[in-house]
Structure to design on (219 residues):
């Protein structure tokens, strides 16, 4: 066999491999959904409408979540759950299902329900962001106490109808004394006044600093 024939066979083989790989990544590669949790979420005192009127004592969490899928196949988000616990008491974890999607109005100064929670279609090579609301009802008997301290948040999402979630995220956060005081005022007066919480222990508040301090911190 001539050397030119060997080269031709090698080139043809390489071309075949490239074609197979191209077809796989373009048409057959399974979807790979990723979940990104926003760094700020909302806690609000809420109520439940009953036959006798408003029953206060509920709690709503609003969390921005982005799902991305850069594969050639579409996917979906079937379910999202929100689990929160005080770090000093891991024996008590509040496991809350998504209830609705929220949209913000007037530049973000107020919100209203968009739709009830439902499976989300995620197109191929796309991303989707939703403000997801999780409600803890007062009729469940036990209230979630919002007090100063360290908490752990876990978010689980399912892309398929199965027992275990595909997507998982764990984030620690801290509720300050000021957050607790503000929240308790809304509870005492039966008002829906939200507080915003920074997620992650490394999240820094807005602050005034010097040029030298900022350069040391970020450069």
């Amino acid at each position: 066999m001539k050397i030119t024939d060997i080269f031709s066979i090698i080139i043809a083989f390489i071309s075949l491999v490239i074609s197979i790989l191209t077809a796989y990544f373009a048409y057959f590669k399974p979807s790979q959904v990723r979940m990104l949790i926003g760094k700020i979420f909302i806690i609000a005192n809420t109520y439940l409408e009953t036959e006798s009127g408003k029953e206060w004592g509920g709690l709503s969490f609003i969390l921005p979540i982005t799902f991305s899928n850069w594969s050639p196949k579409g996917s979906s988000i079937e379910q999202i759950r929100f689990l929160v616990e005080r770090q000093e008491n891991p024996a008590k974890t509040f496991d809350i299902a998504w209830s609705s999607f929220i949209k913000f109005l007037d530049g973000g100064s107020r919100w209203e329900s968009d739709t009830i929670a439902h499976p989300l279609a995620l197109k191929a090579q796309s991303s989707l962001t939703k403000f997801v609301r999780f409600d803890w009802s007062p009729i469940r008997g036990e209230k979630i106490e919002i007090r100063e301290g360290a908490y752990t948040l876990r978010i689980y999402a399912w892309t398929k109808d199965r027992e275990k979630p595909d997507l998982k995220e764990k984030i620690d956060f801290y509720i300050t004394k000021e957050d607790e005081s503000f929240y308790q005022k809304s509870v005492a007066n039966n008002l829906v006044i939200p507080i915003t919480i920074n997620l992650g222990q490394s999240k820094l508040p807005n602050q005034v600093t010097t040029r030298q301090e900022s350069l040391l911190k970020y450069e």
